[in-house]
Design goal:
mainly alpha, about 70% helix
């Protein structure tokens, strides 16, 4: 019974403190993403979004080239 009380106290303390730490910034984000500045939505977040976009495109392109290379390598048998 004592273990149950201790675990309930821990759950209450952790769950009640986490909600109070963060402020609601949804209105700020809505202003940024709804602004009419002729940018696509995946780049409106700033430099971080631009870096993540370019990294993702680079990884996709690299993976495509890598898979096409090994597909061509596997399609022609090795001469003995």
């Amino acid at each position: 019974m004592r273990v149950l009380r201790v675990s309930q106290a821990l759950v209450r303390s952790f769950s009640s403190t986490a909600r109070n730490r963060f402020e609601n910034r949804v209105a700020e984000k809505q202003k940024i993403f709804q602004a009419d500045n002729d940018l696509p939505v995946h780049l409106k977040g700033g430099a971080t979004d631009s870096i993540l976009y370019r990294l993702t495109m680079g990884l996709c392109l690299g993976g495509t080239v890598y898979s096409l290379y090994f597909l061509s390598w596997a399609s022609f048998p090795q001469k003995k």
